[in-house]
């Protein structure tokens, strides 16, 4: 029972009595666990599992709320939407909504939830990328980059109005996610990504041929994401839309870092992506007006 108390801390069932027992056991002279450690662990687990009663009980025992970072709130066996009630309790007890440790602030983790994005912004969430963050050779994603990949158009525009900077790979990220979801056809996630791609090109006016090189990645333009991945008929909508908006399958992607970056068409050929090659061929045939096909 003692082992269970120290591991679960009542967060699984929101059972305060288990947390009480864990603190009692930790306070014994023979215990290997410090009460402060149990309380701090209980704080993290209660937040991650939305255990409101345990959270309120733990906060009465003086945990260091300032040590809590956004990642702690989201670690769970089955990731779920964070509880706004939990967040409100934490903020009321002095938690900094922009705290992040070695990870991202809360706003970055909740971009797919419009209500939580708005809540975070209303409670002082910053929209700029922390200056000291980097991920190897790749620039850290802006909140708009993540919104392009996982958020709604409305969320994207809300963040823009609040001054969020554009990611150099904003359109790339949206196309990449749409490519991954295209096999699901008319599923809502794919429909949402297509809406985002359309919005970024037709409304935000992002360059459909924007080049962004990343070491270890073949992709340079948004179209390259489709060129290098196995395609099916379900990808035609996305391919045709990009081509209709001026995406160039023979775009010269230049040389950078000693690398001759391949054109989208070269990516498709090297990957054996016949579906992509056929889609481009058919699109070119339609542009000729007689439905004929030309060789690529």
Write a brief caption for the model.
The chain is mainly alpha-helical. 50% of the residues lie in helices and 1% in strands.
Q: Ends: how far apart?
A: 69 Å
Strand content: under 5%
Write down the secondary-structure element order: HHHHHHHHHHHHHHEEHH
Shape: elongated
**Largest sheet: number of strands, sense, barrel closure:** 2 strands, antiparallel
Please count the helical segments: 16
Number of strands: 2
Helix content: 40-55%
Gyration radius over CA: 24 Å
Strand order of the largest sheet: 1-2
Mean pLDDT: 86
Multimerization status: single chain
Extract low-pLDDT stretches: 292-296
InterPro entries: Ankyrin_rpt, Ankyrin_rpt-contain_sf, Multifunctional_regulatory
Protein name: Ankyrin repeat protein
Keywords: ANK repeat, Repeat
Strand and helix map with partners:
Blueprint: H1 2-8, H2 16-26, H3 35-48, H4 52-59, H5 70-74, H6 84-92, H7 106-109, H8 114-122, H9 143-150, H10 153-161, H11 170-181, H12 188-202, H13 222-227, H14 236-244, E1 255-256, E2 259-260, H15 264-271, H16 274-287
Antiparallel strand pairs: 1-2
InterPro entries: Ankyrin_rpt, Ankyrin_rpt-contain_sf, Multifunctional_regulatory
Protein name: Ankyrin repeat protein
Keywords: ANK repeat, Repeat
């Amino acid at each position: 029972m003692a082992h269970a108390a120290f591991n679960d801390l009542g967060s699984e069932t929101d059972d305060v009595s288990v947390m009480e027992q864990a603190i009692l056991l930790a306070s014994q002279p023979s215990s290997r666990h410090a009460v402060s450690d149990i309380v701090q662990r209980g704080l993290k687990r209660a937040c991650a599992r939305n255990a409101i009663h345990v959270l309120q009980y733990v906060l009465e025992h003086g945990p260091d709320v300032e040590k809590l970072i956004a990642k702690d709130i989201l670690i769970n066996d089955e990731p779920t939407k964070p509880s706004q009630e939990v967040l409100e309790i934490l903020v009321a007890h002095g938690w900094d909504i922009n705290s992040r440790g070695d990870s991202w602030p809360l706003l970055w983790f909740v971009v797919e939830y419009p209500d939580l994005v708005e809540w975070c912004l209303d409670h002082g969430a910053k929209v700029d990328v922390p200056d000291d963050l980097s991920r190897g050779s790749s620039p850290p994603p802006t909140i708009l980059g993540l919104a392009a990949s996982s958020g709604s158009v409305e969320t994207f525009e809300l963040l823009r109005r609040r001054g969020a900077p554009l990611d150099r790979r904003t359109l790339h990220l949206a196309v990449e996610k749409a490519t991954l979801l295209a096999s699901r056809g008319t599923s809502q996630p794919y429909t949402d990504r297509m809406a985002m791609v359309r919005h970024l090109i037709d409304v935000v006016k992002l360059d459909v041929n924007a080049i962004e090189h990343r070491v270890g990645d073949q992709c340079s333009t948004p179209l390259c994401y489709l060129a290098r991945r196995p395609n099916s008929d379900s990808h035609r909508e996305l391919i045709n839309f990009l081509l209709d908006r001026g995406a160039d399958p023979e775009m010269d992607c230049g040389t950078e870092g000693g690398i001759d970056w391949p054109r989208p068409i070269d990516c498709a050929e090297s990957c054996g992506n016949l579906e992509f090659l056929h889609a481009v061929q058919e699109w070119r045939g339609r542009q000729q007006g007689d439905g004929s096909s030309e060789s690529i």
